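Job type: complex structure
Entries:
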Amino acid sequence: MRFVQVNDIASVASELAVALRKRGHEVDLLYPKLYGAGLPPLWKLAVVPLRFADWVRVAWRLRTGDYDAVHIHYAYLGIVGLMARVPYVLHCHGDDVRDVSRRVWAPVIRLAIKRARHVYYSTPDLKEPLLEIRPDAEFLPNPIDIETFHPEPLPDDATDVLVACALAENKGVENILAACAELSHTSPDVGISGFAGGSGTAEAQALPNVLLLMHQPRAKLPLLMARHRVIIGQVHQGAVGMVELEALACGRPVIAYFTYPDAYSEPPPFCVAHTGPQIAAAVTRLLNDDVERERLGEAGRAWVERNHNAAQMAERVEALAIRFSR
Amino acid sequence: MAEPGAFFRERRLTGKPPMRIAEINDIASVASEIGAGLRARGHDVTLYHPRLVGANLHPQIKPVTAPIRALDWLDLIRRIRAGEYDLVHIHYAYLGNVGALGGFPYILHCHGTDLRGGTAVTRPLIRNALREARHVFYSTPDLEHYVSAVRPDGEFLPNPIDNSQFRPITEAKDRSSVLICCGLTEVKGAGRLLKACQQLAVERPDIRITAIGGGQYTAAFQALPNVTVVAHQPRWKLPGLINQHGIVLGQVRLGSAGMAELEAMSCARPVVTWFNELHAYDEPPPYVTAVDSLDIASAITTLVDSAEMRETLGAKGRAWVEQHHGLDKVVSRVEEVAIAIVEGKSIPQAPAA
């Protein structure tokens, strides 16, 4: 079949593309030009003409590409499916549908969701806002490339902790940095790595126990994770993204705030923590307990293999496409 | 501005120690280190940070910022006059014109690119700043020939290293990873460092390398599987970062090392760099000298494989820095020169570096 994936949010589209290609399909990946993506919501209106011109380009590609299945990521971008007048699957990822009624693009988002042939959502916290618009929306766990993200032995000079999520408010940076600050007093020898770039960057840089890395190319993430004993993920939404799942696939224990255990047939083996003191306590406990770290790492890897394997997700996407093509 | 030397004369009369000194422009933290050392000796030191508008622009484009800079210089002159300083210590050659325009006695301290990177526009300014200075220091030996053409009495003043801040916390023998301490820029030889890292990625993928992002080669280093690029670090975090590594790799293009390489040695780390100014010191520094990518990769491999060599070279390096770049020794010389200028005496003979 000829698939097209539009917009590579959190590498989900590219992971699905790789997995679909492995199943023998032809897959194109289209990248819309996200002019002004870093602007505040109202300012984004100023770049509408530029974006509209690009949507016309993408819609034209969808219209003329002779695709059997069009898979669009990020809710408002469903507009290119509408413009192209082709049936499309819409894949929602998070901020695109959270608090949808407060968004400038709310009417467009609702229309794109309603008109989609099918709607996927990638984290379980999106179920509630989406079901009001599309009761048939389906949870498609993010596809993890378990061959690329695989366990490696811990090197002798491993660092203790990696904060794998962005240092941003919507990841719970306040709580994460509170934990780092507490650890700088209680366990000053514990080294913590994080990524510069989010709103908490300056505060993180001011902590003596945090080493900020520049944004890393995705290809380097498996090795980077392998060089850390414990991973801290997001602690705000109660749901996790790709990076926390990839860390589990690398066989590392992951501290995160996860409140949707019922979304799976078996709950994920995260080390659940929310507040700064809870996160700091979890870090200390895991660093002091080699056996528990290993147990959680192995359990996490096995769980991702069963619940987020990219090959299985591609199979589901393929099955849907076949059903719609009949 | 008060009559030059007024405070010092008062100091002599009353038996109190302070001179009032303005340190201008904190290049590579040299001004703040010297300022701290002078304060420790009882002097009253103020550090001024000129607004370096357009500092990152291409040298040929920078002149367009001249009007803004001129306004800043005038403001600086006003503040220095109001400060009633006995002496002004100005860092970076062309900024010496602040002293020349202000008509106050100043020591000019040259640091590198200020002389090496002179353009048709800045060279006359630099010559004027050098000529008008009461004394001229330069911080790396390779600058001698730039300075001596205008000021034969220019003096090599080794950069001051605070060895209490930059000290070994961990032992080099216990760590085998590598830190690239210099900027990832052409002038530091980042192209050669990149080739060495590429070679190591193939031959010794087990060797982990950390680089500090920011220069034009950042993306190329970021693409290497064996290199982790960290964000620009505040100065107070550098000792900790150095101590996380067993080997430090410095600049390999100019043949002269800067603060970063010296601070790494002060942390008792073996430093691989290209140093080609052996005459500058009475005892050559114990750098591991390497200039091309093959040499660099070979030196790194040798050091990674020998914990004993890392320990020995690290200890030698720290001792050498203490002897030749000790903060106290450098501050003593600045103080000695400052006193001579303020008292109107000739500058005492420079001690051997």
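Summary: The mean pLDDT of chain A is 93. Chain A touches chain B through 19 residues (CB under 8 Å).
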